[in-house]
Design brief:
mainly alpha, 2 domains
Length: about 210
């Protein structure tokens, strides 16, 4: 990565960090983009160059998470299914989503109707990106859409459960275990229908249409 790109990433991160601090302190709806720009030492135009909407300032990690999701699926270990990869990634998030600091994020999101609406858009974007990733793995487009929708629903419920738990003041190892148990239960329920999604099969099995 060149110096120019490095500086752009640093500026983007600075703006996002300032915005999140202000949102947590005062509430998302009470903070303007102009205030974020002033605090970050940039112009409003610069803010919008990096973040098309104010809500994107709050969900600043989404593009990177979407990219890493596709990379994880594409580079999964031999014999690991796509479902297994997603399960592993989400289980790895339990500790972070059970940390004391996550409660501030959760409260800010729950207190804003605009952010809750944006969350639906974010999940739809994730589903679309996941559909494309599954198709790139050779999954039938119809199956890819259905599977992506189911998997993103699990992700959304997992994310919401983490928020509710954080707002109830529950955090630490015990909270992480509760999240993990619920997540494992959800994926176990999906195993019957999606367990072999993206798994390695023989050419004979593929020809027989087992991925349809």
């Amino acid at each position: 990565m060149g110096l120019r790109e490095t500086k752009k990433l640093a500026t983007r991160q600075q703006i996002a960090d300032v915005a999140m601090r202000l949102f947590v302190q005062r509430g998302f709806d009470r903070v303007t983009v102009a205030e974020v720009a002033a605090e970050a030492g940039v112009s409003e135009k610069t803010v919008f160059n990096y973040f098309p909407t104010k809500e994107d300032l709050f969900f600043d990690e989404i593009p990177e998470r979407s990219r890493k999701l596709a990379e994880a699926i594409g580079s999964r270990a031999e014999g690991e299914t796509i479902l297994g990869t997603l399960r592993r990634l989400q289980v790895g998030e339990c500790a972070r989503l059970s940390s004391p600091g996550f409660a501030a994020f959760a409260r800010t999101l729950e207190d804003s109707q605009a952010l809750r609406a944006k969350e639906l858009e974010v999940m739809a974007t994730f589903a679309q990106a996941l559909t494309g990733t599954l198709e790139a793995e050779g999954i039938d487009p119809r199956d890819a859409r259905i599977a992506a929708s189911l998997l993103i629903t699990v992700h959304r419920q997992f994310f919401r459960a983490a928020r509710m738990q954080a707002l109830d003041g529950k955090h630490g190892p015990a909270a992480a275990r509760r999240l993990r148990n619920d997540l494992e239960r959800a994926y176990t329920l999906l195993e019957g229908g999606l367990g072999g999604l993206g798994g390695h099969t023989s050419s004979t099995a593929k020809a027989a249409g087992t991925h349809r």
